[in-house]
Design brief:
There is one protein chain. With 58 residues, this protein is an alpha+beta fold. It has a domain of 35 residues. Helix content is 21%, strand content 26%. It has a three-stranded antiparallel beta sheet. A hairpin with a 5-residue loop joins strand 2 and strand 3. The longest helix is centred in the last third of the chain and has 12 residues.
């Protein structure tokens, strides 16, 4: 868990309601760098499925 007071924070923000994005876009942002990645709904659902199936070594 992370909050704004933690200077060592390594958070990632996920939004599905970005106003300027096309419908179905999932935006992911690194809170340290501000870098933004956009995924379509199919890509995001595939990623979540892989996480749930422990397909990543994290």
């Amino acid at each position: 868990m992370c909050n704004g007071e933690d200077s060592g924070c390594g958070c990632v923000e996920v939004a599905t309601n970005v106003i300027d994005a096309p419908d179905g876009i999932v935006a992911v942002r690194d809170t340290k760098t501000g870098c933004l990645l956009e995924f379509d709904r199919h890509e995001w659902e595939g990623f979540i499925k892989s996480v749930k199936n422990n397909e990543f070594d994290i």
